[in-house]
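Exam prep: given the inputs below (a chain plus flavin mononucleotide), describe the expected output before reading on.
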Amino acid sequence: MKYRRIIYTSHATKHFNKRNLLDLLHDSRAFNEMDGISGVLIHKEGLFLQVIEGESLFLDDLLERLKRDPRHDDVTIIDDQPTDTKLFPKWSMGCADFDDPSLSLIPGIRTDISNPKVIDDLIKRLPEIATLLAENIE
Ligand SMILES: Cc1cc2nc3c(=O)[nH]c(=O)nc-3n(C[C@H](O)[C@H](O)[C@H](O)COP(=O)(O)O)c2cc1C
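Solution:
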């Protein structure tokens, strides 16, 4: 398979406001563009869920950096699969911040992402989220 897709959750170690999140996205997008990585980052009340997809070696490298990053901890991989298709080909890192509606691009998803059932639901809906992002934001 051409690509690999990893989904993980983590806990922010400090409060993430709009400014912190934009800084993080700014850097992440630049790195991801260089490495051909795409995905989406969801944030709600200090919990992150991120989907990252791209070539396996670049993802290994990103995972190492993520695990070292003191801005979050408890990095828990909930899915890691080879794939031939990217769900978020246009997104060096899409973002949905449920704490700040102006950053939230994903309407209609129940937002208690600390609940494992909701995370399951979210993962099932990833193709739908990808379509939504592609249709609504260029
Ligand atoms: C929740 C979260 C998501 C992140 N997502 C990415 C990402 O998609 N791509 C990326 O290059 N860095 C991402 N980072 C930042 C990396 O952890 C790391 O700081 C950055 O890649 C620079 O690496 P370095 O500090 O080892 O130079 C993320 C950090 C956090 C806390």
